[in-house]
């Protein structure tokens, strides 16, 4: 065999046997054990609540926990935006360090913005996704709760373990 071929085989073998760092611009992955139904009721608990009747918002602060079906979101502060009639939640905006749990999967980020009707959660700021023993970091993550998928973007990084 020629030296370039041997070198290529050696590199491929090393990559297969050693942990590998992956840096990419985007990655599509599964998120959560079950598909989420965004029409399910949203339960919010917190230490305090401030309501602004004029603009149709409510601000929950202090150990905020939001539960919808099997999904849990917690943060120090969550702003809730209602529709014009004030009867349906349109959007939840969490800040101060957010944790999202769905099934066995969990994600952390600085902020999260949940569009309830579309079932889309946009997390940004040092996103960390943990799935079993695997962990992926990125700048941003968009979760589609309807089909149980997520897309990570912006300096996506993980460590791939060899099959030993």
Structural overview:
By secondary structure, the chain is mostly beta strands. The chain is 9% helix and 63% strand. The protein has a single domain, classed as lipopolysaccharide transport protein A fold. The protein is built from 1 helix and 10 strands. Strands 1, 2, 3, 4, 5, 6, 7, 8, 9 and 10 form a 10-stranded antiparallel β-sheet that branches. Strand 6 (89-102) and strand 7 form a beta hairpin. 22% of the residues are buried.
Helical fraction: under 10%
Q: What global shape is seen?
A: elongated
The tally of domains stands at: 1
Q: What would CATH call the architecture?
A: Sandwich
Work out the radius of gyration. Answer: 20 Å
CATH class (first level) name:
Mainly Beta
Residue stretches low in confidence (pLDDT < 50, at least 5 long) are 1-25
Q: What proportion of the residues form beta strands (DSSP E)?
A: over 45%
Number of helical stretches of at least 4 residues: 1
Provide the residue-averaged pLDDT. 79
| CATH fold descriptor | lipopolysaccharide transport protein A fold
The helix/strand series, from N terminus to C terminus, equals HEEEEEEEEEE
What structural class do you assign from the helix and strand content?
A: mainly beta
Cα distance spanning the termini: 28 Å
Strand tally is 10
Could you give a short account of the major beta sheet?
A: 10 strands, antiparallel
CATH superfamily: Lipopolysaccharide (LPS) transport protein A like domain
Topology:
Layout: H1 3-17, E1 20-30, E2 43-45, E3 48-52, E4 57-68, E5 71-82, E6 89-102, E7 105-115, E8 120-131, E9 134-144, E10 149-160
Antiparallel strand pairs: 1-10, 2-4, 3-4, 4-5, 5-6, 6-7, 7-8, 8-9, 9-10
